[in-house]
Design goal:
Elements (H helix, E strand, L loop, with lengths): L4 H15 L4 E2 L19 E2 L3 E2 L4 H11 L5 H9 E2 L3 E3 L2 E3 L7 H10 L4 H4 L4 E7 L6 E5 L11 E3 L3
Antiparallel strand pairs: 1-2, 3-4, 5-6, 6-7, 7-8, 8-9
Helix pairs in contact: 1-3, 2-4
Length: 157
Amino acid sequence: MNESIAIRFVDTALQHLEKNGFMTCPFEPPKVMRDRSQDKKGGLYNWKAIPSKVKLRDIGKLEKRIKHSFPPLFKDFLMYKHFMRLTEDGVRFLEHTPNTWYQSLINLCLNSWVPERIIGIGLIPFGDESNWDAGPVCFDTRNQLENGDCPVVFWDH
């Protein structure tokens, strides 16, 4: 995988979290993501990003279930790193851990909000708007470019 915009985005966001002491969560992360070099502070657990175990075939299986294709950059994003939290540029991404990422995306796409008004019209939710908690952030597959990229839109609940 060549270094893409998605990879630079993730690295920059993770550096920001680490620099500001935000690589913590109130529940124990998966063992493989636990950062034991830091002591538990104030009931928080430290975590570290790890290389993603997501493969293209896993993403293909997910796309088949939701009946839409993710943009190539989001596929790079999913296959690059696992993380507990990532919030950047007004988007709060779903927790992306080795054992929960698939079901989390299925739940967001098919079991939350109003699926027929989101997935049903060609929007693929992948996170939440983080500044005003307006609702899901979605890829708009109705306006997909030849290279597979598409606009990102907020679905304001």
